[in-house]
Amino acid sequence: MPIQRPKGTQDLLPGTIEQWQYLEETIRTVCRAYGYEEIRTPIFEATELFQRGVGQTTDIVKKEMYTFLDKGDRSMTLRPELTASVCRAYVENKLYGQPQPVKLYYMGPMFRYERPQSGRFRQFHQFGIEVLGADQPVVDAEVISLVWNLYQRLGLTQLEVHVNSVGCPTCRAKHRKQLQEFLTPRQNELCNDCRERFERNPLRILDCKNPTCQAVTSGAPTTHDTLCEDCSTHFERVLVLLGLAGVVYRVNPRLVRGLDYYTKTAFEVMVEEIGAQSAICGGGRYDGLVEEIGGPPTPGIGFAMGLERVLAALQVQNQLPEQKPKLFAMLIALGEKAQNEGFSLLSTLRAQGISVSMDLLGRSLKTQLKAANRLGAQYALILGETELEQNLLLIRDLTLGEQIEVPLVEAVEEIKKKYQRGV
Question: Whose CA is closest to 263, among 302, 296, 205?
Fold first, then answer.
């Protein structure tokens, strides 16, 4: 029986990968406009990094990580997210010694052992940014406006930006006490996960998608009820700046996000019609994370978005661009001598950046022309025994059906002219 790919993974094949490249190129363009630089970290890290950075009480750490012992009996984990890794790199490489803030972005695969469903995979891809070393509200607003600007460039509509403040450790302690007091009489009605969260991290009960838990927490105290003056002032300033940037947002007091490290600003971007998982971006401020993993006290904020979900939204809204022709020309060489001459011609054209291919199976002229059309080539470069004897190359326009003869010595220049007119 043939070996199949692991459950919850994908093969990204030609015909689809071009959509990914379009999305990735747009992301890079927006990041450059905002002054962000790329960072790449290892695919696997010490398990402790995620236990300390993401949080022991999170579903990611408790249920979803791909963890293994290496040959030195060290516990390693395939990265389930990248914020902790970026903070580790910030500390280990002493980026705090550079002018602050440090503005970074990343793209790459992440791994979580989840139940595969629409928009959710066990190997999935994220784009995210992290800003380390600045705690002003304007940073929060810039991060959210970058997301908004990216989605505008991609043409996505029907978006909702949900924002909230989850407060600092001081005001969160007050909220924790009020929330536990509110939930105590109905604690047994909560789902098993939320009963465990009651003592460790009751705030996350507000984020539970279980209908029963949502009913139990209806009317529960929100973080807004206990925000300290500093957190309240910070949040109000963020909202003012978002308005100035033209970001359409909605304050959602129940938004808490699923990771333990968030403080103050938290946000998500929702889009309809992509299945059960409607969030296509989420993030927030994490002013204690760098210190938690052994670095100096450093404010930070960032977000991550699943590229699979963004592509699904683009597909549903018909916002993916039409694919351009992949191939400029196809060389059709008939016979060994023609193949030798043609192979030399191809090498010259490719060195000049012109996309050309040739038949590698020694097929007939008719079959090779069909292959050229199937590959979307604009031109066929035909070279047979007759053309070799006359030192000619036939250039056939596969769209118009027109054909010209050019001397072999002039072929490169003629093909270059056609290529430059089409660029």
Answer: 302
Question: Distance (Å, rounded) from C-alpha 286 to C-alpha 266?
Answer: 9
| Alpha-carbon span 51 to 77, nearest angstrom | 10
CA distance 110 to 309: 14
Task: List, for residues 75-87, the tens digit of each pLDDT value.
Answer: 999 999 999 999 9
* DSSP-derived 3-state class of residue 228: coil
Integer Rg of the chain from CA:
28
**CA dist., res. 406 & res. 390, Å (int):** 10
Q: Cα(280)–Cα(283) distance, rounded to whole angstroms? A: 11
Whether 401 has a pLDDT exceeding 60, the answer reads yes
Q: Is the peptide bond before 101 cis (omega within 30 degrees of 0)?
A: yes
* Alpha carbon distance 320, 22 (integer Å): 8
* Cα–Cα distances in angstroms (integers) from residue 228 to residues 95, 157, 221, 262, 301, in the given order: 31, 35, 15, 16, 20
Domains of the chain by range and CATH?
17-168+228-316 (3.30.930.10), 329-418 (3.40.50.800)
Residues 322-368 have pLDDT tens digits of 876 678 999 999 999 999 999 999 999 999 999 999 989 989 999 99
Calpha distance 256→265 (Å, rounded): 9
